[in-house]
Amino acid sequence: xxxxxxxxxxxxxxxxxxxxxxxxxxxxxxxxxxxxxxxxxxxxxxxxxxxxxxxxxxxxxxxxxxxxxxxxxxxxxxxxxxxxxxxxxxxxxxxxxxxxxxxxxxxxxxxxxxxxxxxxxxxxxxxxxxxxxxxxxxxxxxxxxxxxxxxxxxxxxxxxxxxxxxxxxxxxxxxxxxxxxxxxxxxxxxxxxxxxxxxxxxxxxxxxxxxxxxxxxxxxxxxxxxxxxxxxxxxxxxxxxxxxxxxxxxxxxxxxxxxxxxxxxxxxxxxxxxxxxxxxxxxxxxxxxxxxxxxxxxxxxxxxxxxxxxxxxxxxxxxxxxxxxxxxxxxxxxxxxxxxxxxxxxxxxxxxxxxxxxxxxxxxxxxxxxx
Amino acid sequence: xxxxxxxxxxxxxxxxxxxxxxxxxxxxxxxxxxxxxxxxxxxxxxxxxxxxxxxxxxxxxxxxxxxxxxxxxxxxxxxxxxxxxxxxxxxxxxxxxxxxxxxxxxxxxxxxxxxxxxxxxxxxxxxxxxxxxxxxxxxxxxxxxxxxxxxxxxxxxxxxxxxxxxxxxxxxxxxxxxxxxxxxxxxxxxxxxxxxxxxxxxxxxxxxxxxxxxxxxxxxxxxxxxxxxxxxxxxxxxxxxxxxxxxxxxxxxxxxxxxxxxxxxxxxxxxxxxxxxxxxxxxxxxxxxxxxxxxxxxxxxxxxxxxxxxxxxxxxxxxxxxxxxxxxxxxxxxxxxxxxxxxxxxxxxxxxxxxxxxxxxxxxxxxxxxxxxxxxxxxxxxxxxxxxxxxxxxxxxxxxxxxxxxxxxxxxxxxxxxxxxxxxxxxxxxxxxxxxxxxxxxxxxxxxxxxxxxxxxxxxxxxxxxxxxxxxxxxxxxxxxxxxxxxxxxxxxxxxxxxxxxxxxxxxxxxxxxxxxxxxxxxxxxxxxxxxxxxxxxxxxxxxxxxxxxxxxxxxxxxxxxxxxxxxxxxxxxxxxxxxxxxxxxxxxxxxxxxxxx
Lengths: 371, 598
Hints:
The complex is a heterodimer.
Chain A: E1 7-16, E2 19-29, E3 34-38, H1 45-53, E4 60-65, E5 68-71, E6 84-87, H2 99-109, H3 119-129, H4 145-157, E7 163-167, H5 175-192, E8 196-200, H6 203-209, E9 212-217, E10 220-225, H7 227-232, H8 237-242, E11 247-255, E12 261-265, E13 269-271, E14 276-277, E15 285-291, E16 296-298, E17 309-321, E18 324-330, E19 338-342, E20 353-358, E21 364-367
Parallel strand pairs in A: 3-8, 3-9, 6-7, 7-8, 14-21
Antiparallel strand pairs in A: 1-2, 1-4, 4-5, 9-10, 11-12, 11-15, 12-13, 15-21, 16-20, 17-18, 17-20, 18-19
Helix pairs in contact in A: 2-3, 2-4, 3-4
Chain B: H1 2-16, H2 28-59, H3 75-82, H4 88-119, H5 125-133, H6 140-151, H7 157-166, H8 178-202, H9 206-214, H10 219-247, H11 251-256, H12 265-275, H13 281-305, H14 308-311, H15 331-357, H16 374-381, H17 383-416, H18 422-431, H19 437-452, H20 464-474, H21 476-487, H22 492-500, H23 505-516, H24 518-534, H25 537-542, H26 550-561, H27 564-587
Helix pairs in contact in B: 2-13, 2-17, 2-18, 2-19, 3-13, 4-8, 4-10, 5-15, 6-8, 6-15, 6-27, 8-10, 9-10, 10-13, 12-13, 12-19, 13-19, 15-27, 16-27, 17-18, 17-20, 17-21, 17-24, 18-21, 19-20, 21-24, 22-23, 26-27
């Protein structure tokens, strides 16, 4: 129809007293798109969601949903006039109603084309979709966590809202159920083609589900992008630290006697030219280096085959972790330990001396700009 | 006291998390919400403040309330405090004595029962609890009359029996003395202390005590060093409430103190307003203000020493069976002692009241030749008495309904909105706990007299409405605490999700909040019903011949004719009615503990 986004947030500010919860936040969600709002707890992502839902009022900024302004300097629509669906972290299933009564609620009150006679059919259809048709007449108090989740999802979708807001919807489920519901959400979103703004602190969830990920920190958006590129090569050290599992160590960029730029860290020194240097031009000063545990090879022979860096340290902790074998290696005179994952080696003991090899290009180096 | 601070902290975060709620409102719905809730806030402020304004005005006025031709004066204050129209020093001393004495009696007995019944394995505790909380159905003025027929010096059953059996010249005790007053009023208050403190003991984490035992403390040391400090906030709250109620104690003093002219503030104010001709309205108002000041200082001090949030800390944990101490070989002796005590202070007086009611004349002992049901016939046939029964029922039904709607609305305003003056509304709704019933009564009376002169349409004096309004005001503090304590337990997300799903605020209230709050509302309603039904201080100040209610009738019949037989018959019927309500509540699954406020 149009290329207009389903949700546009422009310049949103929200203060609690003198504290800023948000500063100048911009955000869009396009049609049929899942956008994940990712950030550590307390970064303001839930408050942002509540501002969009209209249960919290921002201090300034504009919010447009489905092409209509619902929040601006002159407009502040109540939540019921925003045509939304929302899944709360605790599901907010009304305990005094049955599953059917919970799900039919938006049909009764929200703007929708379903005539009253078809309510039951519509509810059954949506219950089918979330696979709890048989619970239609069950009282809400009888539901398990996963069933409440599905009820909540059905309720938020039944009136075909312009935008679906989800606040940490999977965080209260156990591990198995979380994976199941994650896949289910993906399927539903593809089948229904609904626009979703998804708040989570779990990076796995965000990168698995989202078409785009927006990273938040202290009430500001730090970075945004497609999951793949954001995961591979984010543009800020904050994102790098938050996304994926990495060793982080600090160093400084220096110019050596030959005039080449080198990174000096307490682990090892290496030339800046060979590493993955994520920068827009800052050439000297402090840097943060990131290295994936799986990119560290456990070396047999001494020497520097094909330009790899070599480190020698001592194993201080080791054990099976998931599918991998993990070791923590400490180095003489260095404050930083390295975590190393290996698919093949699994038989080291604490106190063992170990030699490690690292390809310089697998180290991502970010200049540390903020004080 | 780290446990207390931690609990207070929990309570605080629980409260704070509910503060930010739907506030995005500009459309017509926003207006509805603002008008409806604003109405409740305004009503609360008016009901709690306006009577005090008129009390102050009356105290500073040289005419009658409503006599606009008068002028301001300090004459009333000079008369009361300088010219000794009242023995103010004596009133302060006596009121403090009654307050302190009843608090001491009720707290020690109530706490003792609470601990023994909740935390030990004393046998027959279920039956004991039933006997312990049944006096909920017996108001203070009936207590006093029951005790006169049982332990009174002239025709008390026990007194005459003892004097006869032991050949004494004089009764061995005197319930018309200050000590007698304190004991009777104190026993009357035991049930409420028990209901205020038992839940705290019930919900206490047993492992706190177990760990003290494991680390070497015996029962007594554990109770002193762990149990008591943990329940201290609940105990302090019960203490201050009891003391405030004791300061305003009216009916027991009026009935038992009459013979020796023992006066407290409440009785002096009552006499100045209702017994003097012409009534000394101005002086009564001036006198009231010093009692009000005393109570306000007390409440202020209590708030200073215990954080406010702590008082209303609700420890939840339904169906939780706390660890109980083994009394060992003392189990049955303790149970026997408790039953003997309960027999003496509750069972016997009630039995005697029923016995007296079926004697044509009571001489302090059973008399088969004097048995009759004539007093019941009179209680039921006398048109004035019948209309008093009808009025009592009407007033309590109307008061319970209006009061419930009001406190649900005002607590929604303070807990669920970000509107201005929430603190003021909360403060006013709570602070009137410091105002003794008699003073609320005279304040409402003065308000009716003043406002009634403005226009006949608002002249409520002499109608049942003024009784209803006064009763509602008297119970705003207690009932609003019940409402607020329960509102915070309903997650705000339940309401928000209804709004997001398209419901307006009114639709949301109808579909989600009110259905979820139905049980609490029912409990508040019954709480108000039972208490207003028994309340005497407010009606006694504002009644007229057409608006007589049973509590006033019982009081007047006893005070004017000393017809204990008829009074006993009316009282038996009255207590029976209350007891039936309580019993049916229990059948509906509402426990007495639910009607307990903190």
